[in-house]
Amino acid sequence: MRVLGIETSCDETGVAVHDSARGLLAHCLHSQIETHARYGGVVPELASRDHVRKLAPLIREALERAQTPRTALDGIAYTRGPGLAGALLVGAATARAMAFALDIPAVGVHHMEAHLLAPLLEADPPAFPFVALLVSGGHTMLVQVAGVGRYRLLGESLDDAAGEAFDKTAKLLGLGYPGGPAVERAARDGDPGRFRFPRPMTDRPGLDFSFSGLKTHTLNTARREGDAPQTVADIARAFQDAVIDTLAIKCRRALDETGVRRLVVAGGVGANAALRERLAEVARRRDARVHYPRIEFCTDNGAMVAHAGCLRLPGEGSRDDAFDIAPRWDLESLAPPGDAVTAPAAGASAPGAGSRG
Amino acid sequence: MSGLLAIDTTTTACSVALRAGKAVLCRYEAVGQGHSRTVLAMVRAVLDEAGLEMTDLGALACCSGPGSFTGVRIGIGVTQGLALGADLPVIPVSTLATVAQGACRTHGAAAVAVAMDARMGEVYWGCYRRRGAGVVTAGEEAVVSPDSVVLPGTGDAWLGCGTGYGAYAEVLAERLGEAVTVVDPERLPDARDCLALAEVRLAAGARGVAAEDVVPTYRRNRVTQG
Ligand SMILES: Nc1ncnc2c1ncn2[C@@H]1O[C@H](COP(=O)(O)OP(=O)(O)O)[C@@H](O)[C@H]1O
Ligand SMILES: [Mg+2]
Question: What ipTM is given for this predicted complex?
Answer without folding.
Answer: 0.98
